[in-house]
Structure formats: C-alpha cells, structure tokens
Amino acid sequence: MSKKDNGAGVILAYLNEKNRPYSAQDVFSNLQKQHGLGKTAVVKAMELLALEGKIKEKIYGKQKIYFADQAQFKDVNDADLKAMDHQISELSEEVQSLTQSCRQLDAELKELNSSLTTEEMVSEIQELKAECSGYRARLEKIKSASNHITPEEKDKVYKERDLYIKEWKKRKRLASDMTNAILEGYPKSKKEFLEEVGVETDEDCKVVPPNT
User: Fold this and answer.
1) Predicted TM-score of the model (pTM)
2) What DSSP character marks residue 185?
3) Is-contact 176 183, C-beta < 8 A?
4) Where is the Homologous-pairing protein 2 winged helix domain positioned along the sequence (predicted)?
5) Do the bridges between strand 55-60 and strand 63-68 make them parallel or antiparallel, or are there none, so unpaired?
6) In sequence order, what are the residues at sequence separation of 6 or more whose Cβ sits closer than 8 angstroms to the Cβ of residue 67?
C-alpha cells in the first residue's frame, strides 16, 4: 500500500471482493489489523472512492453505507443463480457436518485431557499395590493373633450387658419411686432433698441407660 493512495486501493479491492455493503467503521475494523489503516484515513479514502464513482454510497439517516459498483459485474441468469443456490446449500451442509465433527473431536479431546497419562496410571497402580500390601499385612496379623473372641464368648458378654442394663433401669425406677414417696411429706424441694442425703442422679453425672 503506497502512502499516496492512503489505502484507497486496498479498500476498493476489499469491497469488490466481498461485494456487500459496509460502513466506514466496518471496513476500518476489518482492515486495520492487517493493513494498519487509521479510521480517519479509511473515511477519507471511501468518500474519495465514492466521489470518483469507483464505489457506491448510500445514506441511511446519519450513517453512510458503501458497496462495490455493480456495473462492473456481469449479469447472472436464473440458471447461474440456481447453481449458486445449490452450491451454497451443499457448502452449508458441509459446514454443519464439519461443525458437528469439531464438537465431537472437542468432546473426545476433553475426555482425553481428563484421563490419566500412562505415567500417572503406573504411579497410581504402584500406590494401590502398596496399599493392598499393607492391608494384607494387617489381615495376617489379625489372623495370627491369639486373643480372638469366640462367638460363644461374644454372646455371653452381650447377655451380661443386657442383664446389667435391665438391673440399672430397675434400680433407677425403684429409687425414683422411693424418692417421690418421701417427697410427699418432705417440706423442701426434690433437689434439696437429694443434696441433703448425698444422692447423685444419672442426670447429675450426665449419663443415660443405653438401649438393650
């Protein structure tokens, strides 16, 4: 791009290639990065091209729209239009198919990225083997111990536990009945009575009989 044409040649070629309407802002946004055009230069170049008749200009309210001079393009008959429509339809289907393939490949890539690498899998297998070895050692130690409790001994312990719990509840109920009987003729409160005779209740010790 020469400094003399101030980007007019680039803009003219771009509009002829795309053959669609653009504002000066659109052209600036599309060409600025590749060609380093300034916005003021783009506006002046497009106004000059329109003034010279190389492109067309339409004004809609406060906005100017520019597009290629259609006289330079050959006329298109119905057959050509139908062929173009058919080509557009085929390309659209191809784009849709490629988009679907890209989505599928992207999903597979994400799945692969979330999977363990070979090195990570080898490391995890080694850790699991070491963990299993530890469990085996514990199991062998338990099996070789000489202080195992037989089912009969276990059953005896549970029966004695149930017996003691029933006796605990029975004595608690008897003590409560005796206390209530005394309190009928006692001038003070139950708390004062228990403190006077030195009785500590389950509640004082924060314990309750377990379920059998």
Assistant:
1) 0.39
2) S
3) no
4) 8-68
5) antiparallel
6) 15, 19, 20, 21, 22, 55, 56, 58
